[in-house]
Write a structure and sequence with these properties.
alpha/beta, Rossmann fold, Dihydrodipicolinate Reductase, domain 2, 2 domains, 7-stranded parallel beta sheet, 5-stranded mixed beta sheet, 8 helices, about 25% strand
Length: about 270
């Protein structure tokens, strides 16, 4: 058997982190070698995730893990406050980041891209790893050419810190590549309650963020033109929907040294 890809997971005890660990453990060509989280330090991650020991103990320092273990790929599902620092640390230590945490600014993305290119190390950042969500974004981009008005409604669980979601931002960016300005002929508006019309992108796409318990990750793109409307929607009902994209990304960065933003670029 050829050498397996050695995987570390940050945010290992979170819901996404645990799903990633299950997915990694199910693949013959991947090997979990490190689990990093600020809680449960020293406990076997297998006991937490699958109620059986796997021999990988939780560590609270990504830097220590990178320096003490042979790690090929780090899969990050932490939070917006840590993701940039983690991404840079991973690249500086010669590992390859696969980032699912959203909240990175344009400047931070550029910094990560620059370091990836300087190190000649593959890196992949995806606002959404669900293939259906990526297709939804691609369909919305195509539709934007034909519809003069568009709004995005994204719905997530109430533990998500950043708004709007990375998926909504990426969707709007792709749509703006097809049309530079939406809603040209709309009347001027007055918000009786501030924020009623949502956040507004530079191309005048309004984005509305919903945060409620019970949701996982959902998005609607509503496009309008004279006499018609088109709604494109994707729903993730379980975090398992993201795992094929995560595994695909881990394999991809091992074979390719470029910086990639968006799963659509490797499908």
């Amino acid at each position: 058997m050829k050498d397996r890809i050695k995987i570390a997971v940050t945010g290992a005890c979170g819901k996404m982190g645990q799903s990633v660990i299950k997915a990694v453990n199910a693949e013959e060509d991947l090997q979990l070698v490190a689990a990093i989280d600020i809680i449960n330090n020293g406990k076997d991650i297998g006991e937490i995730v699958e109620n059986k020991s796997c021999g990988v103990l939780i560590e609270n320092s990504l830097e220590n893990a990178l320096k003490s273990k042979q790690i090929d790929v780090v899969i990050d599902f932490t939070n917006p406050d840590l993701v940039f620092q983690n991404s840079m640390l991973i690249l500086e230590n010669g590992a390859r980041p696969v980032i699912g945490t959203t909240g990175l600014s344009e400047n931070q993305l550029e910094e990560i891209k620059k370091l990836s290119q300087e190190k000649n190390i593959g890196a992949l950042i995806a606002p959404n790893f669900a293939t259906g969500a990526v297709l939804m974004m691609m369909f919305a981009q195509k539709a934007a050419k034909y519809f003069s008005n568009a709004e995005i409604i994204e719905l997530h669980h109430n533990k998500k810190k950043d708004a709007p979601s990375g998926t909504a931002i990426k969707t709007a960016q792709l749509m703006t590549q097809e049309r530079s300005e939406f809603g040209k002929d709309n009347c001027s508006e007055v918000e009786l309650i501030k924020g009623s019309r949502g956040g507004v992108t530079e191309s005048n796409i309004h984005i509305h963020s919903v945060r409620l318990p019970g949701f996982i990750a959902h998005q609607e793109v509503i496009l309008g033109a004279e006499g018609q409307a088109l709604t494109i929607r994707h729903d993730s009902f379980d975090r398992i929907s993201f795992m094929p994209g995560v595994i695909l990304s881990a394999r991809h960065v091992m074979k390719n040294n470029e910086f990639i933003y968006g799963l659509e670029n490797i499908l």
